[in-house]
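Entry: DoxX family protein
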Amino acid sequence: MKNTVTILMRVVLGVLFLAHGVSKLQMGLDNVAGWFDSIGLPGFLAYVVAGIELVGGIMLILGLLTRYVSVVLVIVLLGAVFTAKLSAGLLGNGQSAGYELDLTYILIALYLAVAGSSGLSLDRVLFRKSEQN
């Protein structure tokens, strides 16, 4: 049962990050870069974050390098909380989103960083990881 839940957490988190990356592409990365500039971040980070979300999401779905990808995603999420969302508060301020969802994603990614991919994953196939990780 634990392996099933871990697989579900990994795949769902991967789908969510993939969706966020696709969303940034649909908005136009130049627009996202402009928003990054407007909050005091270098615009090029929009491209970096979108790439991490797209590639990281796909890698989580596949269960490839799950622990490493999860750590990178935690870093991205902490960056989002401290640069864009903290001032809006936990639940947001009516004008921008809060960071409650980011905390949930962080906890799931931290769990995956510690637990690994478990069960159905490329990590297990390629690196012969046991389900006992």
